[in-house]
Specification:
The protein contains two helices and seven strands. It has about 130 residues and is mainly beta.
């Protein structure tokens, strides 16, 4: 779990995967969203495993720019429970992006124990018509 107190303005977020070996993120490439909200992390709890960070450049009131970077995707093995979470997905453009949909699908499959260590769905959980 990650605590957050606020989000910044709506600007593109550069997504950088920091764990390339986790089943959710294996083989995924970094990308940049359209206009999106970047939530700050006031606390990253010890059981949270950060998978990706997001960096956003925000124009300050005085006209200068400030880079802000926070965890935007994480997984959590909490006892027998698996939790996947992301703070991305506030706008239609992001939610409709194939990269976002792939990430969320993998996170859901992983949390249900239906994602292989190679990042591929287990047999019977792939795309319709393309079942393994």
């Amino acid at each position: 779990m990650i605590g957050s107190s606020s989000s910044a303005v709506q600007e593109p977020i550069a997504i950088r995967f920091i764990d390339h070996d986790h089943p959710i993120t294996v083989g995924l490439g970094d990308w940049t969203t359209m206009r999106e909200e970047l939530y700050n992390n006031i606390q990253v709890f010890p059981t949270a495993h950060a998978l990706a960070r997001g960096k956003q450049t925000v124009k300050q009131r005085d006209g200068t720019e400030k880079d802000m970077e926070y965890v935007v995707v994480w997984a959590n093995d909490y006892g027998k429970t698996r939790v996947f979470n992301t703070t991305l997905g506030h706008n239609t453009a992001t939610v409709g992006d194939a990269r976002y949909l792939n990430l969320v699908t993998r996170g859901l499959l992983w949390s249900c124990g239906k994602l292989g260590t190679d990042g591929k769905p287990l047999p019977g959980y792939g795309k319709p018509g393309n079942r393994q």
